[in-house]
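Question (not urgent): is this output format expected?
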Amino acid sequence: MKSLHSAYGQEPPRLGVGLLQCLIFGLFCLFAVRLWYLQIHLGQVFTEKSRNNQLRTEYIFAPRGFLRDRNGELLAVNEPAFVLGLVREDCEDIPATLGRVSEWTGIPTERLKDIYTRNKPKVKPFEPLTLVPDLDFELIAKIEGGSLRWPGLDILSRTRRKYIYGHLLSHVLGYVAEANEAEMQADPTLSLGDFVGKQGLENRLDDRLRGAKGLRLIEVDVTGRRLSEELQREPKAGEEVFLSIDLGLQQLGHKVLEGKAGSVVVMDPDSGEVHALVSEPSYDSNAFTAGLSSAQWAELRDNPMHPLQNRATQGVYPPGSVFKLLMAAVALHERAIDPNETVHCTGELALGSHVFRCWKRGGHGTVNFQRALVESCDTYFYKLGMKLGVDRISTFAKVAGLGAPTGIDLPHEKAGLIPSREWKMKRQGVRWTKGEDLNLAIGQGYTGTTPLQIARLIAALINGGKVLKPQLMRGMPPEVQGSMPLTPEHAAMIKRAMVATVEDPRGTCRRVLTPGVVVGAKTGTAQVVRLTDELKRMGDAVPYRFRDHAWMAGFGERGGRRFVVVAMVEHGLHGASGAGPAVKAMLDALFLGKKELPPRDVAGAERPAEPAARMAVDAVEPQFPDPAHEPEALQ
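Got this back:
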């Protein structure tokens, strides 16, 4: 008899077996799909992550190109520098690590946290995030000693810009600083910690000077320790650039302007090359490269002498009597005068109820075209302004390059101002008056020019009318930007008058007479404010901020060489005595060899304090350009 519990002859339910098989097959398919997804679809991603854990790439910073003067003297070089970076993937405790860095460096922890949070999105995985941009050797020793206890910290070697003559060329060379977020977005080759040019030629020539970074492949173990390195791409150094600037002339220009505010420009009128571009007072470019503190920036920004301004290209001033050279060119071009025709100067000219006075009390007597320029007779040019009118003067001045940037390779150049009827109506809503023609004729009123614009004007007057772009690189071909409508005969007349202004006993530029050199020049004394009777009685004792600006613009030539020299001294009182010594010193250096190179260790040296009287400049005077932008590191 068979047991009731015997399994003989029984079969499992077919439905249950099928469900089990489907479940097993489904799980197999799920694992297969997941395996395909991880191994095939995401295989490249995980391979890269695996390689990143073992192999890392590191950029090799390229040295920035050297800058030299026209004679090969080094101006800007590179020196080794060390920065502290943090590789966050290797760091076990970021807050504790930042706290330790704060103890080492004295930088507040909150500041380090802010740097880390702000820059974290900008750094790729396993790339170091810069915490401290400049380490001294004492800090390096501390960090190296604790590197095993604080994984993730990495000391990186880079180069730092060094300006050998810190103050002499700060307005020409500018400075470099770390690239900001906008610059990195605009240029994909830039990464966090890269330095770019911020001002001057460093900014305009950044692509040429920066070079190209190299690439190194590094093998590391699980603790991040380096096992081996392989060079993938050699770094390419930046281009070496020779400037047109003559270092000896530049030094001399700063020396003759020491303790004053002003500018000196020396330019080749045939090529446009600038041999000196001086602006005083100056600042040390190295301070920006190393990083300014808030106190240092405030001291520069709030200095009433405005050392950050490049007065040669950004200082806009009334040209005064220097403008009479352009008036002479307009009058000759328009056939508005006969050079032999005379005008009687009594010292004043009445127009309606207003009396316009000549600078010489009692007047100059009877003067013709040449004598009016030689003795700078205001009355002659008042009458010339009435005859020509603002329309013809303004049109010619703009053709001569005034009222527009010169195009020199420096940022933030000012355009100056040549007024017109339309400009005044748009700006002030009132019509141009006849009296304003007289002010315009002697370079006063609304007229504003930069020293570099005046240098280009003088160059055009003696080179046949070519309006040239001022060049700061040696050997660049002349770039003609326009042509002044001036016949050779008229150009010769103006040139003879300029030479007579130096050689004639009654000339206003006798101070720059140089034996053996043909020198021509024109002074300018530009009024800053309308002087009251009380201020006039004070004479040269008038307060500094009310004193006239002093101009002298001229040229010298000998043996086939010729140069334009322009000097402008703020509140220098008189053109001849205020700006003349600077022009004379430059002419002696150019033609008599009276110059010397500055010592190489002047970078970073202390500047002498400005005299108390010169510190009282009103910061809102109209001739000062806009304030300099605050460095991004301090914003």
